[in-house]
Amino acid sequence: MTLSIKHRFSSKKPDTRDPSMIQPSHWNDGHEIILTGPALLGHSYPGANGAAEVAIGQGLALQDNVLSLSDVPANMAYVGEWSSHPTDADLGEQWRQNAVYKNTLDDTSYILTGTPLAWARYLEGGSAYTTEIESSNGTVFRVGESSTTLMRARLFRNGAEITDTTPDSWFHWRRKSRNNPHPPNDDETWSANHRGFKTIEVNVDQVNARATFFCDIVSP
Q1: How distant, in Å, are the alpha carbons of 56, 60, 109, 171, 194 from that of 168?
Q2: Largest pairwise CA distance in the chain
Q3: In this predicted structure, what is the pLDDT of residue 98?
Q4: Spatial separation of the C-alpha atoms in residues 112 and 186, rounded to whole Å
Q5: Which tens digits make up the pLDDT trace of 166-189?
Q6: How far, CA to CA in Å, does 85 sit from each of 91, 98, 103?
Q7: In 3-state terms, the chain is what percent helix, strand and coil (to 5)?
Q8: How far is the CA of 103 from the CAs of 86, 106, 120, 129, in angstroms?
């Protein structure tokens, strides 16, 4: 779309030879709109209304005159730019699951994930990725009842689902128990055995009092 703003009336007169005078071609020329950026021009009201500057909301980025979702989704913690993988000493309290940083040498983003925590290459830069987890049989198992559910992870890029076109190996499930059981039923072993699956089966025997399930997306 091309935006052009001109007067309703267009002068047919030729320009004069006096360069100090405003010429008819000046009147007919398009106007320049000055905005305090980053900002958009429009309005949020129904019908015809005057245009106004529209601010860039959280989770959006305006770069090179293109509006898109920001590089790092809201559930990620962007910790800045580094020339090598930052350590817990560098990041302090920011050393946590799903921290993301950009490497200044290879211009690639990395995410802190896994057990134990380690840096893995993040998905393609310039796109926002989000995941949703669906459960076929609810989210609560009651004591004394035999229950099983299928949990399915769905992956979205900039709002469009790409689950089917994403390799299974990118899907890494994690379990976080309130009371972590002893090996071999511990969370670390369970998580290591549930990598490479978009859908997993969870039964009441895999939940010790209370457990939360996550699915990390990790590219090779």
Answers
A1: 35, 29, 21, 6, 11
A2: 96
A3: 79
A4: 21
A5: 999 999 999 998 889 899 989 999
A6: 10, 14, 8
A7: 10, 35, 55
A8: 10, 6, 12, 19
Nearest-angstrom CA–CA distance, 104 and 118: 18
Pick from 23, 30, 38: which is nearest to 7 by CA?
30
In the predicted model, what is the mean pLDDT of residues 12-40?
73
Amino acid identity of residue 45, one-letter, is Y
**CA-based nearest residue to 201, from 137, 144, 145, 156:** 137
For residue 73, give the DSSP letter. Answer: -
The CA dihedral of 126, 101, 156, 151, to the nearest 10 degrees, is: 170
Phi, psi of 5 (to 5 degrees): -120, 120
Find, among 189, 173, 172, 193, the residue nearest to 181 by Cα.
189
Residue 97: how many other CB atoms lie within 10 Å: 16
Asked if residue 54 lies in contact with residue 41, where contact means CB atoms within 8 angstroms, the answer is yes
Range from 8-12, 41-45, 203-207 carrying the lowest mean pLDDT = 41-45
pLDDT at 174: 93
CA 93 to chain centre: 22
* Assigned token pair, 171: 């899907």
pTM for this entry: 0.45
User: How many Cβ atoms sit within 10 Å of the Cβ of residue 217?
Assistant: 18
Q: pLDDT tens digit string along 120-174?
A: 877 544 566 788 899 998 877 765 666 889 999 998 875 668 899 899 999 999 9
